[in-house]
Amino acid sequence: SFSLSFARTAPQGDPSLLRATADHRVVVSAGRPDSVARSDFSGVVPYVTSRVSAETVTAAGFDLVQMKSDNSIEFSGLVNLRPSLALTLDAPIIDLRASPGGDGSFTTLSTNHLTLMNSSGSPLVANPSLTAPMPLVPTVAGSGTLFANARLIDMIGNLTINGVQAGTDPATGETVRSLVFNSTGDIRLSGTPVLLGRTKTLGQSADALVGSLNSAADLELHAQQIYPTTLSEFTLSSLQVAKNSEGAFVSANSGEVHILQAPGISQPVLSAGGKLTLAGDSILQEGTLRAPSGS
What we know:
The protein is mainly β. It has one helix at residues 54-59, and strands at residues 2-6, 23-29, 37-42, 45-53, 64-69, 72-76, 78-81, 86-90, 93-95, 106-110, 113-117, 141-150, 152-156, 158-162, 179-183, 186-190, 192-194, 208-215, 219-223, 225-228, 232-243, 249-253, 256-261, 275-279, 282-286. Strands 2, 3, 4, 6, 9, 14, 17, 18, 21, 22 and 24 form an 11-stranded mixed sheet that branches. A 7-stranded parallel sheet has the order 1-5-8-11-13-16-20, with no helix packed on it. Strands 7-10-12-15-19-23-25 form a 7-stranded parallel sheet. Mean pLDDT is 82; it is low at 10-22 and 35-46.
């Protein structure tokens, strides 16, 4: 197995040296990266980047691959990452704009079990509280594409995918399929604990399980069934998030959320009390959405 983790730490252990948008990121490139790892520190701004070659990881034959960043996991060039058993990407933001000149990456993720998750909280806040409601994360369009293929896809926590080509091709006028999740089985959606001030609590520190997947681009999901796990409140959305004139982040419907049916016979859903929300400029439902004893 291959595991790479970047946690938010301040130089000399002094949290006052963390900036609000601490840039600790993992960049996955197609071939050999320019540098294996880089660490820069100037004044009070820490800047750390780890560069990983998808070609090298694949050639090494790792069947389990895990990558974690408290800021972003980014892709550069023509990336094909295909561990046989499982792939976990743990970051608040997945960005397809890491190529030189900001060109979009064409990224394909193929595995048996794909997990996209955010266990770090907000990338906009130094030392974020993991139980605080997740603030809106700015969305950025681009020219990248992401195709994710697996037997089972898990989405956990609040996730933003940036740098994806949105809308239609200006040259042909055709719809661009640029952000596609293709599961031959299920897509499971799990929230992470937050405090919303509700009367009922989950254990000692939270009263809700909240998660989301958002991009300014069209979102396409194929599965035998898509559902939230027990008590999870999850939103699948195509929303443009940007600052308004007062400096606050606001969202507006952007693109299409398209749900499609994968062939095969689905298994019983062993969850209850969840809530699934779809948000976008348009919703096209041609698949199976479930929320047993929920909404």
